[in-house]
Design brief:
Blueprint lengths: L1 H19 L17 H15 L5 E5 L10 H7 L10 E2 L5 H8 L9 H4 L7 H8 L3 E3 L7 E3 L12 H4 E12 L2 E14 L4 H19 L3 H30 L4
Antiparallel strand pairs: 1-2, 3-4, 5-6
């Protein structure tokens, strides 16, 4: 019995360690919360269209829904749609599905609700995506030339490599719960990207905020409405309480 309990405790310890490290010595970092920042959402939408939509669809999202983040139909049509798209169309990838399967081994997943589907114990889907997009590194042993510390052997090449540049992780072996694990100590910058590290993180935060918003465009409205509903219920409770006291004050 003691051996079983010891084994169970060890398994829990290793699981917790793996979770905190994102599965490969990388902690899942907290994504900035910008779902109420219109400028960030607009920039995120631009990055999504320019760098993600070529391979990944957002089949449950229509271009005209971008009005909700302050864009006009003219801005959407001129800056965020392809030549054949209409303002009422859904966001479809430009890549041929057969080519995608041939190049990557599988069709790239739809990203409409990716920020909601990637949540785990102790972190949100936004946290996961924010860390994932900042954990790519050059790996010439892989078919795409890229790998990822959060998602080892990832099939998707770095979509934002032109912005971030090329990096390699500096790993250190440490002992955790009696086992050696690789822990990230820093990064070695290779070819520089078009953005500084701070600018890249800012843009990734905007992209992740857009992916969050896209998963539930009505979220901000729902939250605001919920606040007013709770205030109304609180006021109604006070009124009902005083009314009840008034009705029964002469009853003994």
């Amino acid at each position: 019995m003691k051996k079983i309990l010891l084994g169970f405790a060890l398994a829990l310890g290793l699981s917790a360690s793996a979770l905190a490290a994102g599965g490969f010595g990388v902690p899942i970092e907290k994504a900035p919360n910008r779902t109420n920042d219109v400028a960030a959402l607009q920039n995120g939408a631009k990055i999504f269209v320019n760098y993600c939509l070529s391979c990944h669809s957002a089949a449950f999202m229509r271009y005209n829904r971008l009005r909700d983040i302050g864009l006009t139909d003219k801005q959407i049509a001129e800056n965020l749609t392809f030549a054949t798209d209409k303002i009422g169309d859904t966001m479809k990838a430009s890549i041929d599905p057969r080519q995608a399967k041939e190049w990557f081994g599988a069709n790239p997943p739809d990203l409409t609700v990716i920020a909601r589907s990637r949540s785990g114990a102790g972190y949100s889907g936004a946290d996961y995506l924010y860390t994932l997009l900042r954990s790519y590194y050059r790996d010439e042993t892989k078919p795409t030339g890229w790998n990822n510390l959060v998602f080892p052997n990832i099939g998707m090449p770095h979509p934002l490599w032109e912005l971030q540049g090329e990096r390699k992780p500096i790993m250190e072996k440490v002992t955790s719960h009696g086992h050696e694990v690789d822990v990230l100590k820093g990064w070695e910058q290779g070819k520089a990207g078009t953005l500084s590290a701070a600018e890249y993180d800012q843009n990734v935060g905007d992209l992740v905020a857009y992916l969050q918003w896209m998963g539930e465009p009505a979220q901000n409205t729902r939250v605001r409405l919920g606040v007013w509903v709770m205030l109304f219920l609180a006021l109604f409770t006070v009124v009902a309480w005083r009314l009840n006291a008034s009705f029964w004050k002469d009853v003994k």
